[in-house]
UniProtKB/TrEMBL annotation:
It is found in: Cell membrane. This is UPF0104 family protein. PANTHER family: UPF0104 MEMBRANE PROTEIN MJ1595. Belongs to the UPF0104 family.
């Protein structure tokens, strides 16, 4: 029931944004946008997803499986869009990867966490550069850098350090014992999860050569910069001139706020933060809010629509895999 309240908060935030600006005023602004440039922004975002699917394929050693990788990555992005802090993205990515790419769940989780780690690296690097180039938001940028570095430390400890990741899970496992779950299920989960953690970290270490990590870094940098280009194209569609450095820092900060808000996909919080940051750079609230909503339509909601299509086709297989790893734990001792 709690998740419905969270979605309600997101919807309320979007409603507040539209009411604050005025629905008619916002629609009047949106009608002035160049539709061909909006379509270009959609195309750029789909290309970003393709770049991220190339990154996924490279990590799991299936770089030429373009169709499979694109489907798996879209499913993962879709799942992340509707989970707090996008936490379900890596899990569904791994499950879809097992069914579609034929990899192990551990490899999929390792690849997902590696992707998330380098996303954090790029965000931190870009924010540091922008903090020097744009004094107006230096303090906010530094706070974003600190948040990114904190996330990097956590992912590193889980994905590269077996002793630390097992220590973290042991703390969680001690809490599971107090939940209304049978002891057999808890113990089976412990065996399966710790074994999975060790396999995941082993795969991460075998992949972590300088060459491999450099390639992943480059894929990640290109994808983030192209997302900023997409937002810049949306600005051009509304015939608004803005410094590209400002675009980078606004986009990154809005995404960090969306993650910290813990709302599914940052719905509501990202739109509000984008609008507020646009206003900070001298753009009117009506224009800023319209740009924010159109950009999210060209990115978030387009991927969501594709994710629904792909998930509806693979739903049964993915659901069976989840059942096998969770509900099936109780019978794993008998097998």
């Amino acid at each position: 029931m709690k998740r419905y309240y969270v979605f309600l908060v997101s919807i309320l935030l979007l409603a507040l944004l539209i009411i604050w600006i005025g629905p008619q005023q916002m629609w009047d602004v949106i009608k002035t946008a160049n539709p061909w440039l909006i379509l270009l922004a959609v195309g750029i975002h789909l290309f970003v997803v393709w770049i991220r699917s190339l990154r996924w394929g490279y990590i799991i050693n299936q770089p030429w499986e373009f169709k499979k990788n694109f489907i798996v990555k879209t499913i993962g992005l879709f799942a992340g869009n509707f989970s707090p802090m996008r936490t379900a993205g890596e899990v569904l990515n791994a499950v879809a990867g097992k069914k579609i790419n034929g990899i192990t769940l551990s490899e999929g989780l390792s690849a997902g966490l590696t992707e998330r780690f380098f996303d954090g690296v790029i965000v931190a690097v870009l924010l540091i550069l922008c903090a020097f180039l744009l004094p107006k938001v230096r303090l906010i940028a530094i706070m974003g850098v600190l948040a990114s570095l904190g996330l990097l430390v956590v992912i590193y400890l889980i994905n590269w350090r077996e002793d630390t990741s097992l220590w973290i899970y042991h703390r969680i496992h001690s809490i599971l014992r107090f939940l209304p779950i049978s002891e057999e299920v808890v113990e089976n989960f412990y065996l399966k999860f710790t074994e999975g953690l060790r396999s995941m970290i082993e795969y991460t270490k075998t992949f972590s050569s300088f060459k491999n990590l450099l390639v992943v870094f480059l894929f990640t940098a290109v994808s983030w910069l192209l997302e900023c280009v997409r937002l810049y194209v949306v600005f051009v569609a509304f015939n608004v001139e803005i410094n590209f450095v400002a675009i980078i820092i606004i986009f990154l900060l809005a995404n960090i706020i969306g993650i910290v808000s813990a709302l599914p996909g940052g719905i509501g919080s990202i739109e509000l933060s984008l609008t507020g940051l646009f206003v900070l750079f001298g753009i009117s609230s009506a224009l800023g809010g319209s740009i924010a909503l159109v950009d999210r339509l060209a990115s978030f909601w387009v991927v969501t629509a594709l994710g629904i299509i792909f998930c509806s086709y693979y739903a049964q297989d993915i659901l069976e895999e989840i059942k096998e790893y969770t509900l099936g734990l109780k019978s794993s001792k008998k097998d």
